[in-house]
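Q: I have 374 residues here and want to know how they pack in 3D. Can you give me a structure?
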Amino acid sequence: MSRRTESDFVSLPVDTVSNLLIGDVIEQLNRIPDKSISVVVTSPPYWNLRDYEVENQIGKEKSPQEYVEKMIKVGDEILRILRDDGAYFLNVGDSYVDKNLQMIPSRIAIGMQNRGWLLRNQIIWYKPDHMPSPVKTRFSNTYESVFLFTKNDWEKKVRFDIDAIRIPHKTQGEIQKPKGDAYNGKFRGNEKNIGASPGARMSVSSEKYTLKRKKELPLNIICDYLRYWREKRKIGVQEIDKILRYKHTAGHWFRKDAGGSLPLPDDWMKLKKILNFDAQYDKEMTETHLVLQVVQNHPNGKNPGDLWRINTAKTGYEHFAVFPEEIPRMAIKSCCPPEGIVLDPFAGSGTTGKVAKELGRKSILIELQSDFVK
C-alpha cells in the first residue's frame, strides 16, 4: 500500500462550524488524518430496530454478530484518528432475538478491548421518561449503556477534566460529631490508631488522623535512585518480592508510569537492607507525622458518577432517534480541550455538532443520509 499524503485527507475544521462528510462511515473515517480527533461521541443505529431505507446502512445486518463486527471495524478507524489523550464515548442499545437478549453492547466492548482499546467506564444512561412496555414475562428496559474508551496505553495521561462536569452535593458536607457514648468499639480511647479511613474515624471521634510522610518526593527521583542501586546490586524485582514475601509489589517501586508508587516507610527500610543503598533519602522517605483529616465536600461539587439520569430527546422526524444533548455535553466538557476537535461518525440530526458549537469546540460530522442535514 502506498504511503498516504496530506492531499488524501479532508481539511480539519478551523472554527466551530461543523465539517460535514456525507457517505459510508468507514470511507469517511478513512479521510480523517491520524491522531487528529480529541473526542468521539456517537450513537449508531441499533441493530434491527429501524430501516432508514438507505444502501449500506448500519443496523440492518443479517445477524447481531455481523453488526458487532461492523461496529468493531468502525472502532479500528477511530483508534487510528484519535489523539493519544483522546476519548471515545459510544452509546449503543441492545436487541432481542426470539425473546433472548443479545448482549450486543457488551460484545462490541469486548471486541474493541481485543483490538487495543481500554474500557474506562460503562456508564448507565437511565431514562426517567422511558417508553412504556407491554411485556409481562420480564422487566421493562429503562436504560442504555454509554461506554467510555481510551487508547490502551499506560504511559499516556488521558485528558479528563472532572471539574468541568461536577454536580452539586446533596448535603453541605459538615463534619458530624460523635453522639456521646454511642460508640463502644475497639478503638474507643485509642482513636489515633483507627487507620486511614476518614469515614471510620468519623464514627468514633471528632479527631481524625492519618499517618503521612512529612515530605513527598517526586516519583521519578526515587525511581531513578532505586533503579541505580538495584542494578548495582544485580538483583531482580521478583527476588526482592520473594525476600519481602510480597507478590507483584516491588515492581511498582521501579516504575515511572501510572503504575509506579513509592515504598511505604517500613518497606523503605527493608529495601535498604536488601539493596544496601546510602542514606540520601532516608529522612524524606521515613519521617512521618499524624495529619488531621476531615471529610469535606469538594467546593466545586462532586463527580457525577456512572449513572446518568437523562430524559430522551424529542424530534419531529418519524422513526428517528435523537441523541439527548446532555450526553455529548458531558463527553465534550470532560475530555475535549478548547482547541480540540469533536467527531460524531453517526451524526443524524447533528446534535453533537450543535453542542460542540455551543461549547466553543470544532467538530466533524459524518452522516450516510443527506436528508438529515438539510
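Q: Anything worth noting?
A: The radius of gyration is 26 Å. Residues 175-180 have pLDDT under 50 and may be disordered.
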